[in-house]
Task: inverse folding
């Protein structure tokens, strides 16, 4: 049986029909064709699928599309400004070599923003522990940690709101 | 030259695309009319297949077709076999079983694919796969590496009679025994080099489409360059001409060696697309990664080393058992021999070296190349021996190493195994690493840790590896009439940043601005015919050299055209910073590229365009030798067994560094995989061959919190055997980290008399060892 679902994604009203078991990430990837959000595991460990639901980081493989009904969702595609200028977290990842293959990156960036919002001017130790739920196999985390630490300062200074 | 030339820390071109969600990985590819494939996999480690009943599944909603190994065999689909051939000293060849893409008759490891279900949706295919009824008779199985050499272990291949495929030796052991006998000190080490699951973050996937009119099969899949897979699929599996097989990888989410392989699923998906007449998509999940991607490492080593009264090594003997799994991977059996075994003596001047390897079959996932591919195992073994030698001789750990390293004045140095090490500053690496890690100040830090109840340790590890992989690669460089440059490559960046580094090379060699250079890769239809791919730390060398030589050819042709345009003699035309000059006249390479389209501008008989290729061919036995020294410092909580890295210093000699920003990234990533092996990762099978670590819940992937900041430094010694002076960089970190880390933990545990523990040094393992040491003392 299909059920109607609607939500706001990246500022755009969207609706669709989903099965009760359809995951939010399946709705995002398969229905809306927003393929920037990735699936890297089947046990909620890797964090490749992190998006923001009403401003909070959520693993989109771990909630149902129906649970996100009526919410406002932001994915990696919704971060840069329409003129193409990058979000400070994206910019910091580029500056600190926070990505190699790019597969874990969308989840890392979304998680990084969440960390920076909760910990303005975050230190390295905090960031390393906050990344418990995100796995990267390429970078050794060094550039990722540096990027989040750096962007947490930029965002705090700018009073960043996304 | 300039801010984008060789050696500059240029930020990556590929990043904006990947940071904004515009990467295109295989699961992002969808083709109209596609059906979804789900594989039925063996839940048994070893069993006879009595029957496969597909009828209930066929009747399920949405099911298009179900195929088994019999369907493949009836259609003449080929099998997989290893590329490796070896013999023992008497000339007896190793046993090399063939692998069918879907198991027939028997299953030999848990996760082996038995059938494939095609359905309209992923959910329907998954549901129907549950209905495929396979009747198994369980057989006795073997998973243990050391257990498989036991003649009474259950044979994976009864037709061979033994699980040992061959007993390979480099020479008769007796030749070394005479040297070992004159040693004043002898040390032995026994090591279990733990099996790893490489786990790139993008799970495997494939989308195949067959065009019946043209006969072209197109496969989208994550690879490390499609050329090898194209050849294997066309010739070995589908039996079609190679030019009818196209392999496309747009973005690939990590490779680490295992992605370059031709997996059975790729062949099945292609064949199923041809057979069913529908495009077929397979999205592997993480559970399938664990039970079907090739695994890495899994060796058991026993080594003996003899030293003279001066602490100089006089003889080295190594016995290795390699667990190849149930079948032989493409390169798997080679890893402890020509892959890593040949460099076991490492950075040390060791004249008398014997090693033997027994690749053994077990009922486990096949093993193959994983970052370092035999070299991390070799370096780890050698460095554990050096630590043991320090203990036995009373020399410090760095002193015993200093007495044995190959000195710069011995270069080029021909090793016992015929490898010519052209360059390297092994003493300098150690000096640099010890200085930057403040080795001298360690005792004070140890005392500080003691005050908080922690045990502090410091460790050192030298390494050298042989990099370069296959001996050929072809690159193509084109300057278009609009003045922009394009590099066509068969090397394939799956995280390494080739788009950036290759553009730096073009700016350096041809003066075309960095921003005007693009890279075309990841498609066998556009990559040069002589390409091989990216693996074995080879792209800066083989790809870089190809770009350099292609650029030389562009300049040579451009000079002829410029001479005509400038009405001068070719010999009088110079080229610098993108400008051809003759006397007072000059013309840019962009202008030459535009003019090159017009036959009237060209010397007689010259083809239009500025588009040149170069096929790099080197001696197959010529490698380069990335090397370095890593120092690791840890704190151990003796009450909990938790090991925390508190400081890490990596000194690497990757030859000339094309982009330090990117090469540092390779070092960090390599170190993380090395530390992963040494601290958190282990693949565990129970005695029945059931995989106990089949997901991220039970397999310890290293996380950000496991690391401290890594200080990475270069001790740059240009390679003498290639014009760029580069050495490999991708695998170095994984070679240096395990030994430095384990050395540090053993240093910390010295008060308990613990001198060796096998990796990974998990809290459980460390705590147990401390508890046993305490109870021994009490007793």
Result:
């Amino acid at each position: 049986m299909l059920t109607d679902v609607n939500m706001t994604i990246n500022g755009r009203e969207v609706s669709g029909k989903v099965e009760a078991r359809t995951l939010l990430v399946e709705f995002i990837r398969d229905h809306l064709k927003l393929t920037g959000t990735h699936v890297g595991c089947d046990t909620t460990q890797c964090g490749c699928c992190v998006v923001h639901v009403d401003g909070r980081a959520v693993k989109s493989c771990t909630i149902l599309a129906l649970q996100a009904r009526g919410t406002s969702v932001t994915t990696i595609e919704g971060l840069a400004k329409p003129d193409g200028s990058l979000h400070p977290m994206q910019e910091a990842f580029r500056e600190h070599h926070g990505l190699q293959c790019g597969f874990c990156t969308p989840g890392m960036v979304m998680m990084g923003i969440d960390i920076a919002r909760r910990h303005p001017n975050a230190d390295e130790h905090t960031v390393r522990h906050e990344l418990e739920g995100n796995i990267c196999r390429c970078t050794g985390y060094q550039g990722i940690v540096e990027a989040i630490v750096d962007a947490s300062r930029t965002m705090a200074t700018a009073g960043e709101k996304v | 030259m300039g801010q984008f030339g060789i050696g500059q820390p240029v930020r990556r071109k590929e990043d904006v695309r990947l940071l904004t969600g515009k990467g295109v990985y295989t699961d992002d590819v969808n083709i109209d009319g596609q059906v979804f494939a789900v594989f039925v996999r063996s839940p048994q480690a070893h069993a006879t297949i009595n029957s496969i009943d597909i009828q209930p599944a066929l009747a399920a909603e949405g099911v298009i077709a179900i195929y088994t190994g019999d369907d493949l065999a009836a259609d003449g689909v080929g099998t997989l076999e290893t590329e490796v051939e070896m013999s023992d000293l008497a000339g007896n060849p190793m046993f090399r079983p063939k692998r069918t893409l879907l198991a027939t008759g028997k299953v030999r490891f848990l996760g082996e694919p038995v059938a494939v279900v095609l359905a309209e949706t992923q959910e329907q295919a998954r549901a129907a796969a549950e209905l495929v009824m396979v009747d198994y008779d369980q057989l006795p199985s073997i998973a243990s590496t050391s257990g498989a050499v036991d003649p009474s272990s259950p044979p994976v291949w009864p037709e061979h009679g033994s699980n040992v495929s061959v007993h390979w030796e480099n020479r008769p052991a007796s030749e070394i025994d005479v040297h070992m006998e004159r040693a004043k000190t002898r040390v032995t080490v026994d090591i279990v080099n733990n099996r790893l699951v490489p786990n790139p973050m993008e799970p495997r996937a494939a989308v195949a489409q067959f065009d019946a009119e043209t006969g072209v099969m197109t496969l989208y899949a994550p690879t490390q360059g499609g050329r090898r897979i194209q050849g294997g699929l066309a010739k070995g599996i589908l039996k079609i001409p190679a030019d009818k097989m196209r392999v496309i990888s747009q973005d690939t989410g990590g490779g680490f060696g295992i992605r370059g392989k031709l997996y059975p699923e790729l062949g099945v998906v292609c064949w199923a697309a041809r057979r069913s007449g529908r495009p077929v998509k397979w999205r592997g999940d993480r559970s399938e990664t664990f039970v079907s991607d090739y695994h890495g490492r899994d060796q058991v080593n026993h080594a003996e080393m003899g030293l003279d009264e001066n602490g100089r090594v006089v003889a080295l003997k190594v016995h290795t058992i390699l667990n190849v799994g149930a079948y032989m991977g493409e390169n798997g059996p080679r890893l402890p021999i020509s892959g890593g075994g040949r460099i076991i003596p490492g950075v040390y001047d060791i004249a008398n070296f014997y090693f033997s390897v027994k690749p053994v079959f077990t009922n486990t996932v096949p093993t193959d190349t994983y970052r370092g591919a035999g070299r991390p195992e070799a370096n780890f073994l050698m460095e554990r021996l050096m630590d043991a030698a320090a203990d036995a001789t009373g020399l410090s750990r760095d002193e015993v190493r200093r007495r044995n390293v190959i000195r710069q004045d011995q270069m080029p140095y021909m090793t016992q195994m015929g490898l010519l090490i052209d360059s390297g500053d092994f003493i300098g690496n150690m000096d640099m690493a010890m200085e930057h890690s403040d080795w001298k100040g360690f005792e004070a830090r140890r005392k500080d840790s003691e005050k908080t109840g922690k045990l502090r340790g410091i460790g050192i590890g030298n390494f050298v590896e042989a990099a370069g992989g296959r001996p050929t690669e072809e690159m193509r460089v084109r300057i278009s009439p609009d003045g922009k440059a394009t590099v066509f490559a068969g090397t394939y960046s799956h995280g390494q940043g080739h788009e950036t580094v290759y553009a730096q090379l073009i700016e350096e060699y041809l003066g075309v601005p960095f921003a005007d250079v693009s890279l075309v890769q990841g498609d066998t239809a556009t990559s040069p015919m002589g390409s091989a791919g990216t693996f074995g730390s080879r792209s800066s060398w083989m790809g870089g050299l190809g770009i350099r030589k292609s650029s030389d050819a562009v300049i040579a042709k451009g000079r002829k055209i410029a001479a005509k345009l400038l009405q001068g003699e070719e010999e009088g035309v110079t080229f610098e910073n993108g400008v051809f000059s003759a006397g007072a006249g000059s013309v840019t390479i962009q202008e030459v590229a535009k003019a090159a389209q017009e036959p009237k501008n060209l010397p007689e008989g010259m083809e239009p365009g500025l588009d040149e290729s170069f096929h790099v061919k080197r001696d197959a036995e010529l490698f380069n030798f990335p090397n370095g020294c890593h120092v690791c410092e840890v704190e151990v909580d003796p009450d909990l067994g938790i090991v925390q890295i508190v400081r890490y210093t990596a000194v690497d000699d990757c030859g000339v560094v094309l982009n330090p920003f990117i090469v540092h990234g390779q070092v960090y990533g390599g170190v993380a995989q090395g530390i992963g092996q040494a601290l958190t990762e282990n693949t565990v099978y129970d005695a029945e061959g059931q995989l106990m670590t089949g997901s991220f819940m039970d397999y310890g992937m290293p996380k950000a919190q496991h690391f401290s900041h890594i200080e990475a430094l270069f001790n740059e010694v240009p390679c003498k055997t290639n014009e760029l002076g580069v050495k490999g960089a991708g695998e170095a970190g994984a070679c240096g980290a395990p030994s430095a880390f384990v050395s540090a933990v053993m240093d910390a545990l010295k008060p308990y008399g613990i001198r060796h523990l096998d990796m990974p040094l998990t809290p459980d393992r460390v705590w147990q060892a401390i508890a046993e040491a305490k109870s021994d003392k009490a007793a």
Remarks:
- DSSP finds 19 helices and 28 strands in chain B.
- Chain B has a mean pLDDT of 97.
- The radius of gyration of chain B is 28 Å.
